[in-house]
C-alpha cells in the first residue's frame, strides 16, 4: 500500500481507457469534518466518512473514522456536527485515519474520488499529510457541485441538502462525514443517470464536462 518513504499511495488502476463506461467504474464518495475552515493554519481533521459506488449504485460498503485533532473542538463545531471532544481524544492520529481511508479506497478498487465542494476535502487531506511530512498522488476526481453547475449552469448555488431535495435523492445525517458522503453519493448517481440523456456515459464524457456546459433535460 505504501510507496517510498514519506509518500503515501494506494494501488489503483490509473490506466483506464477513456472509453470506459461509467457504469463499469468504481467511485469512492467521501467527506471530512474539521475543527473549522482555517486548514492552512490551526484547524484540523476530526472525521472522515466514505461510501463505495459501483455500477452507478450506492453500495452498503462504508467507512467512518474519527481523527484526533490534537486541539480542542470549538463549541460551535460540536453544535453543528454533534462531534464532541470525547469522540476524538482516543481516536487515531490524522495520519492513521487517512491511511485507513486510503486502505478502504484500495480494498474497493476505486477508480475515482467524488465529493461535494471536493477541493476543501482534498485540501484537508493534503494539509494533514504535509504536517506528517507525507505527500500523495491525487486520483482522478469529480465534484458534484461542479457537475451540477455544468449541467444546470443557470441554477443558483444551493447547499448539499437543497440539491438533494431538488434531485429527489436521499438525505442522511447532515454535517457528519459519513452522512454527507451518503447524501453526496446518491446525488452523484442521480446526476450521472440523468446526464446519460446528454450522452455522458464514459470516462471521456465525464472528463469533458470539466470544460463544457451541458443542459439537463
Give a quick precis of the structure:
The protein has 217 residues and is an alpha/beta fold. Helices cover 37% and strands 18% of the residues.
Description:
This protein is α/β, with parallel strands linked by helices and 217 residues long. It has one domain: Ribonuclease H-like superfamily/Ribonuclease H (Nucleotidyltransferase, domain 5), CATH 3.30.420. The protein has eight helices and seven strands, in the order E-E-E-E-H-H-H-E-H-E-E-H-H-H-H. The protein has helices at residues 75-81, 85-88, 94-107, 118-131, 144-151, 160-167, 177-195, 203-208, and strands at 7-8, 26-34, 45-54, 57-66, 112-115, 135-136, 141-143. Strands 4-3-2-5-7 form a five-stranded mixed sheet, sandwiched between helices. The chain has a two-stranded parallel ribbon with strand order 1-6. Strand 3 and strand 4 (57-66) form a beta hairpin. Helix 5 (144-151) packs parallel to helix 7 and helix 6 crosses helix 7. The relative contact order is 0.19. Mean pLDDT is 91; it is low at 213-217. Pfam families: RNase_T (PF00929). This is DNA polymerase III subunit epsilon. GO terms for molecular function: 3'-5' exonuclease activity; nucleic acid binding. Keywords: Exonuclease, Hydrolase, Nuclease.
